[in-house]
Amino acid sequence: MKRIDTVLPGVCILEPQVFGDHRGYFMETYNQAAFEKLGIHTVFVQDNQSFTKKRGTLRGIHFQNNPMSQAKLVRVTRGVVLDVAVDLRRGSPTYLKWTAEVLSADNKRMLFIPRGFGHGFKALSDDVEFVYKVDNLFSKENDRGIRFDDPAIGVDWGEVARENLSEKDLSSPLLADSDCNYVFDLREEER
């Protein structure tokens, strides 16, 4: 497994080693010992999968407030997405900065997103299957979203049609109007 750091400390691309031949391929998508060697000391407790039928559909920007915040390991098993992570930790040197990576079934890249970051993706193809591991259980009481087009963040999603958004994403507040409770902690950064 290869780790490629992004512009946001802690957010990284992971490239698995793929073993292929005329029959197909095999790859290891998660191995706790290998992840720890790469500096990722997260224990995952839940796996999720979503299906997005239509190209252009946008999901996000989502997160769970503390104490139920979640780190995520995301990947695409069918199709292509533009995957986005946003630093929502007040006081962070990269507060409101974002990174976008293309994840696809073909490139087999994964994105690790630590706690304190918002997450979203836009389907760049039809029929996207998106899978992710999280290190905390889903909590409806702490489930949050902020506007995908918040000008304070300025994510470049390309064109987004209203019909490609859920009611939740359309009605999410701007970050300034949200109750996001993430605060930067240098001690966490140094782990």
Q: How many β-strand stretches? A: 13
Could you say how many structural domains there are in total? 1
Strand residue content:
35-45%
Could you name the ranges where pLDDT drops below 50 across 5 or more consecutive residues? none
Per CATH, the class reads: Mainly Beta
CATH homologous superfamily assignment: Jelly Rolls
Query: Class by helix and strand content?
Result: mainly beta
The overall pLDDT, averaged over residues, is 96
Number of helices: 3
The ordered H/E elements are EEEEHEEEEEEEEEHH
Please give the share of residues in helix. Answer: under 10%
| CATH domain topology | Jelly Rolls
Largest sheet report: 6 strands, antiparallel
Q: What is the CA-atom radius of gyration, in angstroms?
A: 16 Å
Instruction: Name the shape in a single word.
Output: globular
Strand numbers in spatial order across the main sheet: 1-2-10-7-12-5
Examine the secondary-structure arrangement and name the CATH architecture.
Answer: Sandwich
Distance between the amino and carboxyl termini? 20 Å
Account of the 3D structure:
This protein is mainly β and 191 residues long. The protein has a single domain (2-182), classed as Jelly Rolls (Sandwich), CATH 2.60.120. Helix content is 8%, strand content 38%. The chain is built from three helices and 13 strands, in the order E-E-E-E-H-E-E-E-E-E-E-E-E-E-H-H. A six-stranded antiparallel beta sheet has the order 1-2-10-7-12-5, with no helix packed on it. A five-stranded antiparallel beta sheet has the order 9-8-11-6-13, with no helix packed on it. A hairpin with a 2-residue loop joins strand 3 (18-21) and strand 4. The longest helix has 6 residues, at 32-37.
